[in-house]
Amino acid sequence: MMWAKAPVTDVSAQTAVDRRGFLADGLRPVECTACGTCVLVKKSSQHHTSIQWQTSTDNCAEYAAQNKPAALMDTCSKLRASIESLVAEGLLEVPDG
Question: What DSSP string runs through 38-65?
Fold first, then answer.
């Protein structure tokens, strides 16, 4: 019996679709109620939140108070509260499961 490999172009195309879906689909803008920083947010579950920063963290007092690069920090508590508020109001969807 011979096994045939899937054509590389088919795999590459599907990989690009998967990557776009994971990185961009379902993201919506959310503004921090404390500093006005706008990020893109996607809730994959109740406990998993993807955040893509579109600007620097310079306006965030919580980030400014830390003595380490923003890339090594979790999201500030005020932005997290802004996101959780939208979830509680039903304005940011959380998939079931």
Answer: EEEEEESSSS-EEEEESS-STT-HHHHH
Domain that holds residue 45: 26-88
* Total domains present in the chain: 1
Strands of the 28-31 sheet, one edge to the other: 28-31, 38-43, 49-53
**Which pairs from 67-72 meet CB under 8 Å and 24+ separation?**
none
H helix intervals, the chain: 8-23, 61-65, 77-88
- Please give the model's pTM, rounded to 2 decimal places: 0.73
Q: Each residue of 3-52: pLDDT tens digit? A: 777 665 666 777 877 777 777 788 999 999 999 989 999 998 888 998 88
In a domain, 37, yes or no: yes
Q: Look at phi and psi of residue 36 and say left if phi exceeds 0, alpha if psi is from -120 to 50, else beta.
A: left
